[in-house]
Amino acid sequence: MENWIKVLKKMKQTIWNNLYQYPYQLIIVTAIIFLLGGCAKYQPEPLPRSIDLVPEIHGLLSPGAWHGIDPAKGLSPAEISALAVRNNPDLKAQRKRLGVATAQLYSARMFPDPQLSANLDHPVVNTIGTVNALSMAISYDILPLINRKERISIKEQALNKTRLQLLWQEWQVSQKARSLAVRLYDQRRQINLLHKMKALYLQRYQNSHRALLSGDVTFDVTGTDLTALLDISSQITQLKQTCNNTGYALNLLLGLAPGNLLEIRLSPIPVLIDSEKLRMEIKNLPKRRPDLLALQAGYNSQEARVRAAILSQFPSINIGISHARDTGSIYTNGFNIGLNLPFFSANRGAIAVERATREQLRREYQARLDHTSMEVDKLIRLHGIIEIQRQQLAKYLPDLNKLVISGRAAYKRGDIDDLTFLNMETTWIKKRKEEINLDQMQRENLIALQTLLAIPESAISKGTGRK
Length: 467
Known about the structure:
The protein has helices spanning 2-10, 12-17, 23-37, 77-87, 89-109, 143-146, 148-214, 219-254, 275-281, 285-288, 290-311, 348-413, 418-453, and strands spanning 115-121, 133-141, 271-272, 317-325, 331-339, 461-462. By secondary structure, the chain is an alpha+beta fold.
């Protein structure tokens, strides 16, 4: 393309010198040259060849933008979510869709180009006095002007929909980052708990093994201690695998290279506000939640498509003017009009498709509203169930802890048998893990409520609960 443009530009002077000798041909060629001169030039854009993940945690922080944040002291879920929105690789790609939608709107606002046509007829028989017949015409299609407003409206709503979809994706990434941070923090708590218990089991097994060798205890005592040690080691291994997956998922969400370990700090679990107030928030969702607003924009865009399809059923009108010379060297000027007769199709098929699509979008929007209402009510009830369980554990775990401590002393003295002590220790570990799991579930439940209602944490909770 670029080489052809250079060659055509060199022909300009020759064209102007011969303009009067070959007027019609040269006018057409000249118009083509000037049009090609304004063409866009192709520039290749190769695909990336290297990984673009941030190599270390401090690279996530832009200079001066995150004053007071120290990753070494631990990041809160809110800070992690903000970093995820800023650095997430998928969001970076999604933001480029705005450029595509903006370009489509720019294209829709442009007026269609006219059509230029030219003909050259050469007489087959050599007849004295005949010349080559020439004609040139320019025409313009009127229909794109009739539905131009609707076409622009379609792209405007599409751009608005793209913006809102990006906002909803940012909100989801933010909440997912918070949820993963909570999950990773509690999984580490469980691993630390199991390591402490493993140290106790290991010590007890070593003591019972030495006692077995000296004949002070029977084999079943040592076997019980070894079984408990192997069981808790398996639990640690499985939990480490889960924690590893969670850590990598969080790093990927942040756009952070593998091998970086995030230190996380959590505040006490907030207390949920009145559940009835939360249910009232459902009525305001269509005015607030980005995905619902995006669906509304998509529906408005489809409404414009229906209107455009209806306008397109009217006859397509093409008007133009022409200048011609026949073989007898007689010049004529003309006016022409082309009319598409809507006898068979009349765009009825396109209208039916657009109307059916509009109804589909309307039902999808209704389904999204219904689903959200059900999910919000489910999470509110789940919050109450979890809170009752947490309160029960908070009430009885201190007593259970005292019993376990007393049981360890009694076991050393030989006052209780091996099975009784093993059951007591196992129950303690299970209840401590259950407490951590309930804390994690409650935090993630609150995060899910925030996501569904598209409101900040302060709007669904108040004060602080037990950490």
